[in-house]
Design brief:
The protein is mainly alpha-helical. The chain has 2 domains: 44-143, Transferase(Phosphotransferase) domain 1 (Transferase(Phosphotransferase), domain 1, Orthogonal Bundle); 148-232, no CATH class. The chain contains 9 helices and no strands. It is globular and about 60 Å long. The N and C termini lie far apart (72 Å). Mean pLDDT is 85; it is low at 243-257.
Length: 257
């Protein structure tokens, strides 16, 4: 959450554990009259394997969750997703995250892979995460303010941020047909605006079109129109979209005349 001065605040400690006072039990997760699962707590897409198996919950579990969040920051969706909690848990405990070069740099892939190490003893610590090459040049003791960071947002990034808001503006997750109409309309308008934008280079336009195509697929998943799963992505999905070509001139070259 952000406060009135745009400072980030952590909230919702209903299932948190006091690591400095382990005798204080967290709320856990249970049904009336049933055994309390002390460690089986959290949002499925971000739960570490040891939490899913109700074996442990400590700082290393938070590293797993942070890895999932970083993945989502870069790709738009969590690394493990599915139509039910059971499917998500099966993927989290048995499958490796899928990385596309278009979305992840070499450093980002390496960092997230190490944060999503299933063996919690081998998983990075927070200190190791902060020292990773992905964060080279970042001074964690002197981070920029919200306003300073906002001022550095590129035109490319600003376009995507605005577009995300438009994709998610439809208020009717129980109306898949209308949601699809909304998503298709936003996508078509965005594609047209990209082509007409005078400040984007051809390379930026191609990259934006690919990213917008991905946002469309994820928006359809968000509204329940169709499932979005990384495993279902076609190998050529992130190849450049063929952009509309200008119409040819009516005058043909009659070199034979």
């Amino acid at each position: 959450m952000l406060d009135s001065k745009n400072r980030m605040k952590l909230v919702d400690f209903g299932t948190a554990r006091d690591m400095n006072n382990p005798e204080i039990k967290g709320s856990g997760n249970s049904a009336k009259g049933k055994k309390i699962f002390d460690h089986f707590v959290g949002t499925p897409q971000y739960m570490a394997p040891e939490c899913i198996h109700n074996k442990d919950s400590n700082f290393k579990c938070d590293i797993w969750s942070l890895g999932c969040i970083l993945y989502q920051f870069l790709a738009g969706y969590p690394p493990f997703n599915g139509g039910s909690e059971y499917v998500i848990f099966m993927k989290s405990t048995a499958e490796k995250p899928i990385f596309y070069d278009y979305l992840f740099s070499t450093e980002a892939k390496d960092l997230i892979t190490k944060m999503l190490e299933r063996d919690m003893e081998k998983r990075l610590s927070l200190e190791e995460v902060m020292k990773h090459p992905y964060f080279e040049g970042i001074d964690f003791d002197n981070l920029p303010t919200y306003e300073e960071a906002e001022a550095k947002i590129t035109q490319f990034e600003a376009f995507l941020i605005s577009l995300k808001g438009r994709f998610l503006a439809f208020k009717g997750q129980d109306q898949p047909e209308k949601a699809k109409e909304h998503v298709d309309k936003v996508f078509n308008e965005a594609a047209e605006n990209i082509e007409k934008h005078p400040d984007f280079t051809n390379d930026e336009k191609e990259k934006l079109l690919v990213r917008v195509k991905l946002m469309k697929e994820q928006a359809l998943g968000y509204y329940g129109v169709e499932d979005f799963e990384w495993e279902g992505m076609k190998k050529d999905f992130f190849s450049h979209i063929k952009r509309p070509q200008p119409e040819s001139s009516d005058e043909e070259d009659d070199s034979d005349d």
